[in-house]
């Protein structure tokens, strides 16, 4: 490790970039993890007012983690703590801080608020799509993004990395590049294909160099990115007055809709590309109406 306090980056962006390079080079983490850790570190530095960490204290680190408890889900808080521990160990090893403060980013436990995946109802899904004005280019794009997520259960990152070459119109298939470099072929439903085609014809900027399907509509012409896809869902939910709807809820919605349509858990797992049956089993508790249909009345005892 060559970085030292004498050569410490002078700005927040510079420090975040050097840390991101360290994660790639020394830790070999995925680009998604790099992006998430970098975002968390940038938040810490901006909240502190700069990149000078010489007066950073253990109490400040602990408070930074605890401050997220009320605003974020437990899993997000735990991830923030992981980001802080990795960053602070890096700072100590490279001489940016004199003491190893990583232990001050205490693990935060917390029960999940619900054991059931939280999708949205068919009425809410219709309102979400209706909030996209398809007469405009941005509305065509946003509508197509949401349809893809609602019908196929793609993650935000998978939508962002979808490329023109992944669309096989003749075979009616879509190539999805998921977690762990996994590549899967999914059928391309008619309504999904129509939404994407409408965006490609009327909404997508005409460029021969960028191959991602969903692009920013303002220069520079680049792919949306995971954050852009997430923002599309959140903005449409606000316009539809649905409150906070995160992109991952559309994945849960797709699974619930498939179950209601009669799909088996195995089929749902194949579409969602789960690595294990255990990941899909949680949806067995979602469709209450189907469970009621097969349930037998509780015996009340023999008549006297």
What does this structure look like?
This protein has about 300 residues and is mainly alpha-helical. It folds into two domains: about 5-105, DNA polymerase, domain 1; about 120-290, Orthogonal Bundle (hpI Integrase, Chain A). It has helices at about 10-25, 30-50, 60-65, 75-95, 120-130, 135-150, 155-160, 190-200, 225-240, 245-260, 265-270, 275-280, 290-295, and strands at about 165-170, 175, 185. A three-stranded antiparallel β-sheet has the order 1-2-3, with no helix packed on it. Strand 2 and strand 3 (about 185) form a beta hairpin. Helix 6 runs antiparallel to helix 8, helix 6 (about 135-150) crosses helix 10 (about 245-260) and helix 10 packs antiparallel against helix 11 (about 265-270).
Give a quick rundown of the structure.
This protein is mainly alpha-helical. The protein has helices at residues 12-27, 31-48, 58-66, 74-93, 122-130, 137-152, 156-160, 190-202, 226-239, 247-260, 265-272, 277-281, 288-294, and strands spanning 167-168, 173-177, 183-187.
């Amino acid at each position: 490790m060559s970085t030292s306090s004498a050569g410490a980056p002078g700005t927040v962006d510079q420090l975040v970039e050097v840390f991101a390079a360290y994660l790639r080079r020394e830790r070999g983490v995925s680009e998604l993890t790099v992006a998430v850790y970098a975002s968390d570190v940038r938040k810490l530095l901006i909240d502190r007012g700069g990149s000078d960490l010489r007066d950073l204290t253990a109490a400040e680190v602990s408070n930074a983690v605890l401050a997220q408890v009320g605003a974020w889900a437990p899993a997000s808080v735990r991830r923030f703590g992981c980001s802080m521990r990795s960053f602070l160990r890096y700072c100590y090893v490279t001489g940016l801080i004199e003491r190893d403060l990583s232990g001050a980013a205490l693990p935060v436990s917390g029960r999940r608020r619900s054991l059931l995946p939280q999708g949205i109802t068919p009425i809410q899904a219709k309102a979400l799509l209706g909030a996209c004005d398809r007469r405009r280019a941005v509305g065509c794009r946003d509508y197509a993004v949401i349809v893809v997520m609602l019908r196929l259960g793609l993650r935000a990152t998978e939508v962002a990395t979808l490329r023109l070459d992944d669309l096989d119109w003749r075979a009616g298939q879509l190539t999805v590049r998921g977690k762990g470099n996994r590549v899967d072929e999914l059928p391309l439903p008619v309504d999904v294909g129509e939404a994407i085609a409408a965006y490609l014809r009327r909404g997508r900027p005409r460029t021969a160099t960028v191959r991602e399907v969903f692009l920013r509509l303002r220069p520079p012409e680049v792919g949306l990115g995971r954050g852009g896809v997430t923002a599309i869902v959140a903005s449409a939910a606000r316009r539809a007055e649905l409150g906070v709807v995160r992109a991952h809820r559309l994945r849960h919605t797709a699974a619930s809709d498939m179950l209601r349509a009669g799909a088996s858990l195995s089929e749902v797992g194949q579409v969602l590309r789960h690595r294990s049956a255990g990941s899909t089993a949680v949806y067995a508790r979602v469709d209450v109406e189907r469970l009621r249909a097969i349930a037998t009345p509780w015996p009340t005892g023999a008549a006297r």
